[in-house]
Amino acid sequence: MTRASEATVLHADLDAFYASVEQRDDPRLRGRPVIVGGGVVLAASYEAKAYGVKTAMGGRQALQLCPHAIVVPPRMSAYSQASKDVFAVFHDITPLVEGISIDEAFLDVAGLARLSGSPVDIAARLRKMVADQVGLPITVGIARTKFLAKIASAVAKPDGLLEVPPDGELAFLHPLPVERMWGVGKITAEKLHAQGIRTIGDLAAHREGALSAVLGKAAGGHLHALSHGVDPRPVHTRRRRKSVGAQHALGRNPTSAEDVDASLTALVDRVTRRMRTAGRVGRTVTLRLRFDDFTRATRSRTVSRSTAETQVVLNAARGLLEAATPTIEAKGITLIGIAVSNIEDDANLQLELPFDTVNPLSLDSALDSVHDKFGSTALTRGVLLGRDPHLTVPMLSD
Fold first, then answer.
1. Per the residue annotation, which of 47, 104, 163, 169 is the catalytic one?
2. Residue 208 is part of which domain span?
3. Which of 53, 112, 193, 304 sits most deeply, having the most CB atoms within 10 A of its CB?
4. Can you list the residues of the chain whose pLDDT is less than 50?
5. Counted domains in the chain
């Protein structure tokens, strides 16, 4: 549980999400004003926002403000996949992830200092992983509470990182306009302005009873507490994940078959270790590939029984990779990912006969113990020696 004296809550928010996906997938759009959606603006790149274009604005008005903007139709399937890829990174950082929309989430990183560094270190690594593995910019706010972390990320946008230390919360919060507060929309802001309340500090200076008389008891009490930095809500994970996955960006340079296999091996090691730590097993192995022409491919194979054994998953993944080799050779590859789904608790796993055979999981468990005690690079596969150190970064379980 997060202690009140520590800033260990992260709010991670993708920047201009739909527009950023379009710019990622089409190099011609990078650095140019992009509007997603025709009749109504669903998203605008920061280059378009600089001209006053806003989400939910009419398309005609948006083009009047920015006549040279490039309008593209929405691709919801691409945004959905990008969201899944980003949330996979979140879950690589910590199991305590609360998604609040397709492009933002809270993460609780309390207790990870020994393994992963300070919250600022973790947030910086998260941003780099999202950039390298998914190709998207993301802003992260860090604070003691969800409310402050969300405001910090809004202030840090775009593509930034901002920590609000516990001893500087009110100094950060009070000069900001009340519109920055989570839950203060146009109508509420107008009511507050009518009372002479322009900043969060003005709101904090008002009596709770006076605010309740204007906004209602519940809203008045809630906003008054937030204005003093009081927000007891924990990061809440609503459900257990249905899959466990990881991915690795290979870059745009030519990649040998040996390098691709090494990346796949490291990803399988990472995923199966997370599964064992979380007490989960699964049956369906999915390989995800992104090619040099920005197209993608997904291939799956279901094994005969639920497992968290590294070698079983690796064998299935290598079979899928072998089938995709002709396409990789023709197009080139820039990203590889692996996921295991059809997940269940390992307590539900039925023991197999005969019982006197060597259990493959005993070797996996022994390796896990070494990694837990001495770090993920203390003992590694020969195929990974001398390769990208990010392939062996320790990842926490779901």
1. 104
2. 174-227
3. 53
4. 1-3, 350-358, 378, 389-398
5. 3
